[in-house]
């Protein structure tokens, strides 16, 4: 649920460009456990909840698509690599691989991994 409010009239002068205060309530079930989250946003958009809801959904669609794939397909959260720059470097490599797969027309990352697994000519074709 998205609720949009006009900022209070006594808002601090440094926040005068804020035109909307948004409260987003999300709920669902993950791993059999019900959850609910509450998020707040401020925006310079006029307080039109339809427009703001669309912008928020677009942002989270992109974020969730990337993070879900990296966690579920690449098991990023289960990685044993925790020291130094290794986790960051591996995350960058995973993101790079996802970008290459998507730029080559693969919608299913699992399908792309299955296709390229043990297929050196196919992997090398990505480099040209």
Provide the fold topology:
Layout: E1 2-5, E2 20-30, E3 33-43, H1 49-72, H2 86-103, H3 109-116, H4 120-125
Antiparallel strand pairs: 1-2, 2-3
Strand content: 15-25%
End-to-end separation in angstroms reads 46 Å
Unreliable segments (pLDDT under 50, ≥5 consecutive)?
none
User: If helices are DSSP runs of H or I spanning 4 or more residues, what is the number of helices?
Assistant: 4
Arithmetic mean of pLDDT = 82
Question: What percent of residues adopt helix (DSSP H or I)?
Answer: 40-55%
Number of strands: 3
| Largest sheet, spatial ordering of strands | 1-2-3
Q: Radius of gyration in whole Å, from Cα?
A: 20 Å
Structural class: alpha+beta
Query: What count of domains describes the coordinates?
Result: 2
H-E order: EEEHHHH
**Gross morphology:** elongated
Largest sheet: number of strands, sense, barrel closure: 3 strands, antiparallel
If you had to describe this structure to a student in words, what would you say it looks like?
This protein is of the alpha+beta class. It folds into two domains: 1-62, no CATH class; 73-128, no CATH class. 44% of the residues lie in helices and 20% in strands. β2 and β3 (33-43) form a beta hairpin. It starts with a strand and ends with a helix.
Salient structural properties:
single chain, 128 residues, alpha+beta, 2 domains, 3 strands, 44% helix
Quick structural overview:
The protein is an alpha+beta fold. The protein has helices at residues 49-72, 86-103, 109-116, 120-125, and strands spanning 2-5, 20-30, 33-43. It folds into two domains: 1-62, no CATH class; 73-128, no CATH class.
């Amino acid at each position: 649920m998205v609720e949009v409010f006009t900022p209070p009239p006594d808002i601090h002068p440094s926040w005068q460009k804020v035109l909307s205060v948004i409260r987003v309530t999300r709920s669902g079930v993950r791993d059999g456990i019900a959850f609910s989250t509450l998020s707040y946003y401020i925006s310079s958009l006029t307080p039109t909840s339809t427009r703001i809801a669309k912008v928020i959904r677009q942002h989270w669609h992109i974020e969730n698509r990337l993070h879900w794939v990296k966690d579920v397909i690449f098991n990023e959260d289960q990685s044993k690599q925790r020291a130094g720059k290794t986790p960051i470097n591996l995350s960058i490599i995973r993101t790079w691989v996802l970008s290459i797969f998507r730029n080559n027309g693969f919608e299913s990352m699992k399908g792309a991994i299955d296709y390229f697994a043990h297929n050196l000519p196919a992997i090398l074709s990505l480099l040209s």
